[in-house]
Amino acid sequence: MIKIICVAGARPNFVKIAPIVSAMLKRPDAIKMILVHTGQHYDADMSDAFFRDLDIPPPDIALNVGSASHAQQTAEIMKRFEPVVLELKPDYVLVVGDVNSTIACALTAAKLQVGVIHVEAGLRSFDREMPEEINRVLTDHISDLLFVTEESGRQNLLKEGIAAERIHFVGNVMIDSLKRQLAAAGRSAIMEQIGFRPGTFGLVTLHRPSNVDDPFVFGEILSALHDISKKLPLLFPVHPRTAGKIVEWNLQESFANDGTAIGPEEKRSGLYWTAPLGYLDFLQLMSHARLVLTDSGGIQEETTALGVPCITLRHNTERPSTIEMGTNRLVGTDPGRIMQAADEVLAKPPAGTLPPFWDGHAAERIVAVLLNYERKAKS
Ligand code: UD1
Q1: Residues 366-378: tens digit of each pLDDT
Q2: CA 164 to ligand 1 center in whole angstroms
């Protein structure tokens, strides 16, 4: 029996951990899984809604760390996670993605000589100004088993000197969740509630510090969105960090509403602000959007899986397969370039293909590799 602690802390983690937890719970004969929620994200719409929508069982252990500076948050997670590992003595700690909870729990486990498994290893933006890039590089270099979502991940890890036998190209657990929940998302009433018909609106998300923490950059992006929204109504579910900045810098005038009431009347133009949405509502909207504009990592992948055009408002991406094979386009933050890209995409939507193994079975492959690895280690 292998004892594994699975860690999730922030919104994108929940989407990635759901299929892994489910695949592990199907093997009670071989795996004892313990789910830890660090509490990095804690609002009902950033956390509870995702557990509900993704059928994730309640966490066995909640660390309730909350928000703080990077060092304080990372340190607090480590302080609270260490006694859990000491008490439970797991064989492995499994972490996903690139958030502060990922590096904090991986580092805690590695220092206690507990095996570390990193799911979504090897992605690189080569931009050390991104906190996530630091988390990715460090987590990979203290991991024993590294599961990658795309070929670039394998190549990056090999170039960094990680042994080939530790790297496994299994596909994308985020796409496992998408495929599993697409039918349930189709039953969401969000489109009628807002007043959108399929293919007649765009969707926006922004939360990267490099985009929303600088009033000039954020203002320029909003001016481009405002312009695009005259041709295509845009819905912007606003992350709490972004909402704070909109209020702080008085950027509300870019919006057609004040962020609260979005009625069912048909939307023809305007940029509409709403609270963060749950997974199923967001998936329903994303799958019917004519265009998505984002600085998220996961949404670049989800739009590729759905074949929906995506314009990424960043200067780099750690997910190159979404551009080389999928429907994603990297345009940066210059308003002229954003508007031009939107015009081009609306005139001629890009065609894309699905990267290998983005087939809904990545989590099953992870469990199979893990069981095989354990068998070999014991023989
Ligand atoms: C984190 C991740 C980022 C990921 C994003 C997804 C890191 C370094 N960053 O960024 O990679 O793409 O999650 O959302 O781990 N807040 C709330 N309620 C919550 C959570 C946060 O109001 O439930 C607010 C707090 O003011 C907090 C701020 O949002 O200070 C930022 O939260 P934090 O977890 O530090 O980083 P994110 O920007 O969410």
Answers
A1: 999 999 998 888 7
A2: 33
